[in-house]
Amino acid sequence: MEVADVTAGPFYLPLRQQDGAQDSTLSFRYSGEARMRIDARGLAGVAEVVGAGGDLCREQARSGPGFSCPTSNGSLSVGLVPAKGAKAGARGVLRYSLAASDGSAEGAGAVDVVVGRPELLTSAVDETPTVERGARLTVPVRFANAGDVAARDLVVTVDTGTDLTFVTRHSNCVYADRNTRMFCLLRGIRLPPGDGRTGILRLDPSLRLAPRPHAVDPTVTYTVGLPGPAETEALAGHLPRYRRGKGAPLRAVPDRADSGRELTAHGDEFDVRVPSTADFAAIGDAFTGAVGDERAITIGYVNKGPGQSHRGGTKAVFKVPPGAKVVRAPYDPEPAEEDEPQHCTTGDEGRTYVCGLNNRLGEPQTFEFVLRIEHEDDRSGTISVLRASGEGAVPDPRPDNDRALVRLVVHAAADDGFPAAWASAGGAAFLLATVLALTWRRRRSGR
Known about the structure:
The chain is mainly β. Helix content is 11%, strand content 41%. The chain contains 5 helices and 31 strands. It has a 6-stranded antiparallel β-sheet, with helices on one face. A 6-stranded mixed β-sheet has the order 23-31-30-25-28-27, with no helix packed on it. A hairpin with a 5-residue loop joins strand 7 and strand 8. The longest helix is centred in the C-terminal third of the chain and has 21 residues. The radius of gyration is 35 Å and the shape is elongated.
């Protein structure tokens, strides 16, 4: 049996528990029902096991350094605390064995336990940088260790969202689909503990990002820290959506230009300003019929770009033609189930509707209304784009196409009388056929 996940590298046991926790938890994950045996004799003078699994398992854990626990949920958590008098840097080994309940498989392993924990601090981006489309953004990343023990084999994690992409794909990094996330392993590094002012390292080369064509004010997050399960699996090639880069490796080098400013951030998140525009265009429709006729119309808007507006707030305002009435507005059962408002709402008894949904760049956002012609009135309605305003709003380079007509053409209702037939295309065809027939008969009788 294979243990699917044990803490990557050493398990760092904090000297001081945080947030009211009484111990630190080491977790094992595996598949199926099994019995796990824990051997804590290698932790003597370093750490103590104070609990594990359910009630029975906890009682066994308190009885001595070795115990066995049946499990059925594919996981087991072991609570640890530093031993009395243990100093930062003290190391021990927790050994384990695992056997399937049916005897079909078994496995064994060990986890290094270190008293104390590194605390990685990074530089912060104080101001919002601006980068034009087609240009490159360089982000220096500096980091230091303000913890109790040295940090080894660190992982750099960067998330760029869908608006930015990595310029270089380093060979010691893996990149998620669409190049939106990066994990980089700084193997072999040893960063001693300090005060956050000395021993500062920086990434070499600096982080370089490029805006995508649709980018509008994206957000970047980055951290430098110890590898966790997700990073370990991705860097080991176990997650198919991640691909390894082929460029020069990303390194950590001493920050020779250290200004002495203390690093205080546990990672950073910052916005990037990418000047752009977004051409929103209204989509209208037309309805031709007689009084009493009903028909569905499709109206809405589309963002023609180049910028993608992530800020939200774009709405379509539909003013119903004076001669018509809405007999069915768009309805989505999902908001109704969540007791949320519909995508289209009215506040004036159905004469005006305000509709809004988030939509992707280039994909029309449309809404279907069923109208009934109430009386003879050919005045048109309108569909208008109501743009978000204020900070973060994207300018529209063509405000002239933000409004479109919803045309209404009313003709007389058809009935069985001859005059009414003239009012329709079918009536005109009937009249023409009648005249031709009379003319043909007259010519024939005159022969």
